[in-house]
Design brief:
- With 213 residues, the protein is mainly alpha-helical.
- The protein contains twelve helices and no strands.
Length: 213
């Protein structure tokens, strides 16, 4: 069995079918493997589901994790000004938008991530430790500089969550905005509009520095 090929075939199926409702036979057919291979190689369908998620993060999140690590390294070596931190925050979120909205495989996994937030399985540990924690901490670090607060401040972390929500809503609320604005499915021009609107929203943060204005 060629494991990566098998794992690449599953995301779309897993979006449409939750793990509890999917049978081992269905998963085997979708992955194009012998049914007996699933318990043998993965210990069952839960193991296959987790392995599918691990494979996705190993392949598709390198760029966003590398960017987050680079931002953290730069921040640690030389303090950033609020303006510099804001620009790096925009860059990080632009990359996240690109991953979630522009890549077909990533859109499937984005939906899986949203479902895991609402109904977490053991795979959520992989998702959280694999990417969410690193991206969330980097956003909090940059946001703390912009707002003049500590990155561990509860208000900063809450705002980091809200900012992530401003990205994820274009995935989870795709159909609503498509109908509201007559979008065709995030073309190059529509994607540019979304980024511009996000940047305008982020620019408002500088007016809230220290929470005093």
């Amino acid at each position: 069995m060629h494991e990566p090929d098998s794992l690449r075939r599953l995301p779309k199926f897993l979006v449409l079918n939750n793990l509890e409702g999917a049978t081992t036979r269905q998963l085997a057919e979708r992955a194009r493997v012998n049914q007996a291979a699933i318990p043998y190689y993965f210990g069952g369908k839960e193991g296959l589901y987790t392995a599918t998620i691990e494979h996705f993060f190993a392949v598709h999140t390198r760029k966003i994790l590398a960017l987050a690590a680079s931002i953290e390294a730069q921040s640690n070596s030389q303090p950033l000004s609020p303006t510099e931190a804001l620009e790096r925050l925009k860059s990080l979120l632009d990359h996240l938008l690109e991953i979630l909205l522009r890549q077909q495989a990533s859109r499937s996994f984005g939906r899986i991530i949203i479902r895991e937030q609402m109904q977490p399985t053991k795979a959520f540990d992989v998702i959280y430790e694999g990417v969410i924690r690193h991206v969330h901490e980097t956003i909090s670090s940059l946001l703390g500089i912009v707002l003049g607060r500590e990155p561990t401040d509860r208000t900063v972390i809450l705002r980091a969550q809200m900012i992530l929500g401003q990205v994820l809503i274009f995935l989870s609320g795709r159909e609503a905005i498509r109908r509201r604005l007559g979008l065709t499915g995030y073309t190059e021009e529509e994607f540019a509009e979304i980024k511009a609107a996000l940047h305008e929203q982020l620019d408002l943060l500088q007016r809230k520095r220290g929470g005093k204005r």
